[in-house]
Amino acid sequence: QVQLVESGGGVVQPGRSLRLSCAASGFTFSSYAMHWVRQAPGKGLEWVALISYDGSNEYYADSVKGRFTISRDNSKNMLCVQMNSLRAEDTAVYYCARSFGGNYPDFDYWGQGTLVTVSS
Amino acid sequence: QSALTQPASVSGSPGQSITISCTGTSSDVGGYNYVSWYQQHPGKAPKLIIYDVSNRPSGVSNRFSGSKSGNTASLTISGLQAEDEADYYCSSYTSSSTVVFGGGTKLTVL
Questions:
Q1: B4-20, pLDDT tens digit by residue?
Q2: Within its chain, how far is the Cα of A40 from the centroid?
Q3: Are residues B33 and B53 in contact, defined by beta-carbon separation less than 8 angstroms?
Q4: For residue range A54-64, what is the model confidence (pLDDT) as tens digits?
Q5: Closest CA in chain B for residue A106
Q6: Minimal Cα–Cα distance from B75 to chain A, Å?
Q7: Cβ–Cβ of A45/B36 closer than 8 Å?
Q8: H or E element at residue A116
Q9: Are the beta carbons of B87 and B107 closer than 8 angstroms?
Q10: Burial class (CB in 10 A: 0-12, 13-18, 19+), B93
């Protein structure tokens, strides 16, 4: 069965960095675009970033552009996001999600999420 | 990348139908037939219930339906059930090759 398991969340000070990972299993990882979506406590969903199935294209929300970098290793079935210059407003549960529609928001599988708290 | 506009809350009685709107622009909702809807129960990951405006994934009840007119997409839930009480989010592909979500709608089943 399809599984997405995020890890790497925690408490980090403003201005520092954190790297989240998402381990995929149960499907041909290299055939699907992958996304990161976040949700601040008590707030709505916010799309963060997308990487194409082969890693050749990346797209970012304006709120994270220049600070976050999405990447994937298809040989290890792993999706990552490197988050630099973190701000308090980056505090959220971060979900990885599989899109069966490529770049389109057809997220049929989601991970359980990992909480990132940016605080001094 | 402004969020799509959804009503903050809607409510209905069991058995009734409700509709949730999702308004964007010609650069997102109005420009593409790539609107999806998600249901999220407290403490859980979102669940895809409608994709590409009006398609239901396998296993999703046919009580859920989607449509679009111009820059506004809509989700209709018919025959409301207690388990439908949740937060609902729309999302759309954009002209910048990105994705935008709506602010979310809390559905209360009275």
A1: 999 999 999 999 999 99
A2: 14
A3: yes
A4: 999 999 999 99
A5: B51
A6: 16
A7: no
A8: strand A114-118
A9: yes
A10: buried
